[in-house]
Sequence to fold (597 residues):
Amino acid sequence: MWAFIARRLAAAVPVMIGITFVAFVLIHLVPGSPAKVILYGSQATPQQIANLTSQLGLDQPWWEQYARFLGQLLRGNLGTSYLTQTSVAHELLSRTPSTLILTGSAMVVAIVIGVPLGVLAGARPGSFLDRAARGVSFLGVAIPYFFLALLLVLLLSVRLNWFPSLDDGSFRALVLPAVSLGWGYAAILTRLVRGRIIEEYRSEYVRSAKARGCGEWRILLRHTLRNSSIPAITTIGLQFGNILTGAAVTEVIFGRAGLGSYLATSITSKNIPVVQGAIIVIGLAYVLINLAVDLIVGAVDPRARVA
Amino acid sequence: MAIATATAPLLTGSPPRPRSLATWVVLAVTAAVIIILLAAPGLIAHTGPTATTDDILAPPGGAHWFGTDQLGRDIFSRTVFGARPVLVASLLGVLVATVAGVALGLAAGTAPRWLNAVLMRVIDVLLAIPVLMIALILIATAGSGVASIVIAIGVAFTPGFARVVEASVRKLRSVEYVQAARVFGATSARTSVRHLLPNLMTEVIVLGTSAVGWAVLTATTLSFLGLGVQLPQPDWGTDLAAGATYLSTSWWLSTFPGLAITVTILAANFIGDSLMTALDPRGESLGSGR
Fold:
């Protein structure tokens, strides 16, 4: 198990370094020099721009710039915002919890709806329940979450007034964003779990459990669900990045102050240090979650440790 | 993303041959609708998408099937004309990603071991960044618009395609006739084009088709965020976002563009699934949608 953990950690390091490099390269890809963007609107002289360029270290060779970027990063410094001159790390950190709470809630919605629906549908393939679950999952994948968000606001907030349409910091305000974001992933999980349960039902060990006189529910919950949970965990881990960016879009709709709205305004205003910081935070979160998923799967399923 | 988790590459070399008549009919009708929406949307909608009338915020009815917006523009017409940027962005984007992904996958799969390792680590890094994030980064550098969305989808989907193609190439390389071609002195490029590529076609078509729904979602998300087609030009994502302001009084402004996106993704996933079942006798899922 320790060798497995070490191998997984070693594989995550180059990915993380690569992400920092992508973030670093960004500053050179954006048209217009950073100094001009910072001094935009202040009628700066060419001399001022040149001074700021050398002050930012942008006249040095790229590998020196990258080394400095990495050095700053290791000390937790993500640079300063072009617009407000405040610390990007501080700004991002204060907004990250809100986004992570929404991402986590959406995952909970996906699991709480998707797994039971998939299990029930897979236990009785072809039944009314199965057909209903398949319809729901087909539709769930097709409705864009930002459209579902508007429909839910229209129905449950504007018409019925059950939930607030804008964030007020309460738990009730989290329900609509989490459901609209989690629904599509619930659909993916339903489909996946259903397929696995059908497969597991055909296997030898289920037949022998039946022969031993195990009850249906016991087989379902103790045997097949456990074996079907591994691909479900892996899938939700792989989807984490997409849920996270989806959370960023959902935040904009519901007026939640998270990473998403901050990132969206920073992209339009070409506030590169913020975009770089967001890439690194999201990339790091993604790598850590997938590392955790790998370790969980390795702990549950010894076969996964060998590969 | 779903493409990255794709399993069970198809090693059969036959071209796509949908089995049932129903699949053929659906494919033909979809193709006809797409062609009309792209080439002559005026055949379906009789008014222009930016033409204003005196009916302001009129609910759906006989004169305006989908109602009108705050400037008196016909929503039905805007929904029909709004298909073009969405279809162009998602279909062209997937095409770009398919070509680039196949090229990269073939190159990595036939490269020397060290180069393969380097390329695959780079692909791993790109796969670790969410698709929407890559698209947003590219649009931050290239500016907004349909062309940027095509590039964004193309680049963001390439690593997933390349990963799947590379895995199949590695499997195919050990097949006897590929080994034989190498023994007879065929160059790596010749082996790729003459022997590997034709055998990958089925899988590539399925991979591309099942990515279209996901591409439509990405394209409309980007235009929903205001990074695609700019008003007053029609676009499903842009119109959906613009109509949200009137949600509490005039629900039809956002609902019809939203339904159009939903129906398009449903159709794309249905076609992807039918093609997959038609081409893969084991009926294993390659994963579609998000």
